Amino acid sequence: MSNDGSKGQAQEVEQASSRDEEDFMTAEMKKRCRKIYLKVDFRMIPILGAIYAISGIDRTNLSAARVAGMHEDLRFDIGERYSIVLLVFFITYFIFEIPSNVILRKVGAARWLSFIALSWGVVILGAGFVKSWAPMIAIRLLLGLFEAGFFPGCMYLISCWYQRYQVQQRIAWFYSLNVIANGFGSLLAYGLIRMEGLGGLRGWRWIFIIEGLITCVLAIMGYFLIIDFPDKLAGFKRPFLSLEDVEIIKARLNRDRSDAEHDLFSIKKVFQTLCRWQLWIYSLLFMCTAVGIYGYAYFTVVILQGMGYSTGRVFLLSAPPAIVSVPVSLIVSYVADKTRLRAPFIAFMAIMCLVGYVLVTYAKQNGVKYFGIFLGIAGANGALPAILAWQANNIRGQSTRAVASGLQVAFGAVGGVYASLTFMEKEAPTYFTGLWAGIAAMLFMVVACAFMSVFHYVQNKRAARGEILIEGLEGFRYTY
Question: Where is region (Disordered) located (predicted)?
């Protein structure tokens, strides 16, 4: 089919859907669009999700290695060494989020995302051979440097392919792969620990070596499978979509928010984006849910160990809460996209996580504490896709998305620092301060959701009266 023909089809889709979503699209047009999005779903989400999943394991495998003997071998039992090694990761992770998104756009998604994944895979592999705790600081700094760009890059890429009320489900599927992998990651770690003595190496060293190798293999696969932005047709070396398919995608994006084409980066645009106070609220929300995610990821095994369980049972018990959080996240994301709401679901997930913290902190029976871990992990993981989607729904422009997603995910690093510092070694295994710090973060999320919802309501009313133009686009409205 000619380019003119494909553009004509795309214009038909855009004009039809512009009247009222998909109500006036023909059955044939709807079927064609569903097929196109299924192609994108199956090509993009699994490989990005798989690499991010192994990055989550790579980032949090310190807790498994600690239980398996690293704590004594590298003398993490002295002072706050363990918390320091956890903390330094987030320094480079925070700094390089936004610069990485700028590079991503220039270099190309497949090249950049696969390169940084391969780099951190090599770094993780090297962690299996350290002889003292000090080199682990350098390893964690490098790990933060290379991992910094992957998650915001994925969010930037996904948000550029899907319409506003399609995106949360895709983020949830992407992130759920990470949650599942982390759940089974504890079982993988337990299996690798059983390699104790093989090749003259401790079991905890095999955790880093094998997981580093897995990361390298996935990174190489990513180079061939990751797709580029819709407007960068040159990026499709082996096209899985026709030119007509891509034009339809772009037409729907333009109908949804008029930003299918990339607008060039400039220092002025970066600073203008960073001066938008709403983005800092979205970022603080992401920080708060990251407090819950990192807190449970780093310290669940230690809390379970403090309940008196054996090492093997600790690893087995740490998997189910993560696995159960997946259907919770997927169901919430489906309903949120259908209802086109974000804030109520974020607040509900925050309250769920808060209740989990309270049970872990104050319950006397191990069974009740363990149920609290289920609630806490489900609440934190369920809120994350909604928070990312809420920001993506309320901004326009690809350069704005690149900076905003980098800023938002960078605040996840702040949440990691917050969790690392408040879960103090001297309070193990109760971690009373860390758990109450998590409760405070969840309370902030509820208040912030209420505040932003009121602000969005007022602005939408003003736009309806013609007093303001939201995001510079006639008819654009904020999502609550």
Answer: 1-22
pLDDT, tens only, 287-307: 999 999 888 877 787 788 878
Distance, in Å, from the CA atom of 181 to the CA atom of 50, rounded to the nearest integer, reads 8
Listed in sequence order, the DSSP H helices in 226-276 are 243-257, 267-274
Indicate the helix (H) or strand (E) that contains 197.
none
Nearest of 295, 283, 284 to residue 420 by alpha carbon: 295
Say if 479 falls within a structural domain: no
Distance CA 406, CA 391 (A): 12
Kindly report the number of other CB atoms within 10 A of residue 73's CB atom: 16
Length of the chain: 480
Tell me, yes or no, whether 284 lies in a domain.
yes
d(CA 387, CA 49): 18
Query: In this structure, which amino acid lies at residue 355?
Result: V
- Token pair, residue 260, equals 């299918």
Token pair in block for residue 144? 């933060």
Please state, in angstroms and rounded to a whole number, the distance separating the CA atoms of residues 127 and 64. Answer: 14
SS3 category, 47: helix
Range of the domain at 290: 3-250+260-472
Alpha-carbon distance 452 to 473, whole Å? 20
Beta bridge partners of 22: 20
In a domain, 478, yes or no: no
Residue 286 is given by DSSP the state: H
**Residue-averaged pLDDT of the chain:** 86
Burial annotation 284-312 (CB, 10 A radius, 16+ → b, else e): bbbbbbbbbbbbbbbbbbbbbbbeebebe
In CATH, what number is assigned to the domain containing residue 115? 1.20.1250.20
480 inside domain: no
Q: Are 287 and 418 in contact (CB under 8 A)?
A: yes
Give the tokens for residue 191. 């299996």
How far apart (Å, rounded) are the C-alpha atoms in residues 124 and 406?
23
Where does residue 182 rank: exposed (0-12), middle (13-18), buried (19+ CB within 10 A)? buried
**Secondary structure class of 308 (helix, strand, coil):** coil
Q: Give residue 203's pLDDT.
A: 83
Q: What is the pLDDT of residue 306?
A: 79
* 8 Å CB contact between 188 and 58: no
